[in-house]
Every structure is written in structure tokens, then in C-alpha cells.
Design goal:
Blueprint: H1 10-33, H2 37-49, E1 51-60, E2 64-69, E3 74-78, E4 94-101, E5 107-115, H3 122-128, H4 136-148, E6 152-162, E7 166-175, E8 183-193, E9 197-209, E10 219-239, E11 245-265, E12 269-277, E13 285-292
Parallel strand pairs: 3-5
Antiparallel strand pairs: 1-2, 1-4, 2-3, 4-5, 6-7, 6-13, 7-8, 8-9, 9-10, 10-11, 11-12, 12-13
């Protein structure tokens, strides 16, 4: 559009500019609100991956559901915050389960669970008279996921510390999640012994599961931090030239800040590397292997 400077045509020129700007604004708004092909494909994929299965409940917990389909195969489902389900799902109930793929292959996330009342055929009736046996692999995965998703866990730990060199063992609790699905509190107490040093450490730590790993996968990575309170006793024995033994000992306590990272497995075991700052004479590095019950 060409607009010449003309005192007699100034108003007309302004109107033309206004119309052009208004047209561009409307066009950009329509483009911004129109879903892209990629988003449409993603939405269609989610819709296409949704599946409805009808079968008999063989196991039901607060977090998992195992259903035996009409073809005799077992399917393990998990619940999340978007799941719609009855308060109680008794074993033996015939249900219809709408689900989508989960983070772990072979395990699906439930969207809706409803009771179904299909008319059984004589063959199905005779088959249901026998108690269905859930495969051991599904039972094991179900137990591991149920353990991993409990709000409270207790565990034990052992390991080694460096500078000074110590052997350690301890107990801990894991509570959560808090504020986020991946944030947990994990207070712990550690006892460590060495040739010279004895240590009691009380740690108030929080851990965060890194979202790059699956929540229900075989393993997941995490990082954490928290304050620690250490009580240290060091005892030195010395023998002089006359054979007399002298005992030099001291007791100290200090406050440290711990930083840690590790891997935890669905089975309950975890491995962790922890370092402390402002820790003298406390250990500066600890390698820990533990287990959550």
C-alpha cells in the first residue's frame, strides 16, 4: 500500500494504515490459536493409544490393579491422580478399564475403572471356577511398585567414609512426597567407626527424583541436600620409650551441609555418594549402599 503525504488526504491515509494493522493483528491471532499439525498428531496419538479392556480383577492395591482379560492374559495397571475408580475394587469383580501407556513398557496407566456385567458363556463360567494364578513376574513388579509408591518407608544403610577412613552403618526413614511427586524427606542416623575416630551423624536430608528417569521404572536417579549434626570422638594411644601408655582423646561436635546423589532401584536397594562441606573433622566423602523395606 502506498500512502502519499497530502494534507487533503491525510485522514484517508490514516484509515488505510489502521485497516492494514487491524488485518495483520487478526491474522496473527488466528494463526496463534490454530493448533499446529504436530500438536494435532500428538493429540491423535494419545487418543489412538487409549485402550479399553474388560476382565476379572485378580489383585487390587491402593496403587496397582491386575486384571485377567477375556483372552486369559494378565495386565498390570497403575493409578495416578487423574484416575477415576471405585473406592473399593474387590478381587473377582468384572471391570472395564480404560487406560493409556505408562512410562514403563507393559504397564498401563488407568483413566477410568467401571464395574462391568458381561454375560458369561459356559466356557467362561467353567474357566472362572478355577482360581486364576497371577504370573510371578507380574506379582514381583506389583510388589516393587507398591513399595516404591508408599508414603512412608524405613530402611538400613552401610558404607565407607573417607577423610577420616571409617566403616559406617545406619537407619533411615523416607516420607513423602511433599509439594511435588518427586520430593521426599529422608532423615537418617549414621554410626561410623575407625582406628581413631568414632562418629554419630544425625542428618535431615531431602531428595528429589530427577524427571529424566521413570517414576515406576527399574531404577531412577536422584539428588539431595540437607544439614547434618555430627558428634565425633577421637582417641590416640601413645607408648613412650619406658613402655608407659598415654591416652590422648577429645570429643567434638559440628554442623555440616550435606550434598548427595544416587540411584535407587524399584526393588528397594539404592546406592548413594554423599559429600559434606564445613565438615572438619567430619568425613568429607561417604559411599553408601542401602535398602528400603
Amino acid at each position: 500500500m502506498t500512502c502519499y503525504v497530502d494534507p487533503m488526504n491525510d485522514l484517508t491515509c490514516t484509515k488505510r494504515l489502521y485497516r492494514v494493522l487491524l488485518g495483520l493483528t487478526l491474522t496473527l491471532g488466528i494463526l496463534a490459536t490454530t493448533p499446529t499439525a504436530q500438536s494435532q498428531d500428538a493429540a491423535s496419538n494419545v487418543y489412538r493409544d487409549e485402550m479399553t479392556m474388560t476382565g476379572t480383577v485378580t489383585s487390587s492395591t491402593a496403587n496397582t490393579l491386575v486384571v485377567r482379560g477375556e483372552n486369559g492374559l494378565f495386565q498390570l495397571f497403575i493409578f495416578d491422580e487423574d484416575t477415576t475408580k471405585p473406592r473399593v475394587i474387590p478381587v473377582g469383580t468384572t471391570v472395564s478399564v480404560s487406560s493409556v501407556p505408562g512410562e514403563v513398557p507393559g504397564i498401563r496407566v488407568v483413566r477410568v475403572v467401571t464395574e462391568a456385567a458381561p454375560i458369561p458363556t459356559p466356557a467362561q463360567t467353567s474357566a472362572r471356577q478355577a482360581e486364576p494364578v497371577v504370573p510371578p513376574t507380574i506379582r514381583r513388579v506389583e510388589r516393587d511398585i507398591a513399595r516404591q509408591m508408599r508414603r512412608y518407608q524405613a530402611g538400613v544403610r552401610t558404607g565407607v567414609a573417607l577423610d577420616p577412613e571409617l566403616l559406617l552403618f545406619g537407619v533411615h526413614a523416607q516420607v513423602g512426597p511433599f509439594f511435588n511427586k518427586d520430593v521426599f524427606l529422608r532423615p537418617n542416623v549414621e554410626f561410623a567407626f575407625g582406628e581413631v575416630t568414632s562418629l554419630i551423624a544425625v542428618n535431615f536430608e531431602a531428595i528429589y527424583r530427577l524427571p529424566v528417569t521413570s517414576r515406576q521404572g527399574r531404577w531412577s536417579a536422584y539428588v539431595g541436600a540437607g544439614p547434618g549434626f555430627n558428634f565425633i570422638h577421637q582417641d590416640f594411644d601413645r607408648v613412650n620409650s619406658d613402655g608407659d601408655r598415654f591416652d590422648f582423646g577429645n570429643f567434638e561436635n559440628d554442623t555440616t551441609l550435606n550434598f548427595l546423589g544416587g540411584l535407587r532401584y524399584r526393588s528397594g536397594m539404592f546406592m548413594e555418594l554423599k559429600t559434606s562441606v564445613y565438615s572438619s573433622p567430619s568425613p568429607t566423602m561417604r559411599f553408601i549402599i542401602g535398602y528400603n523395606f
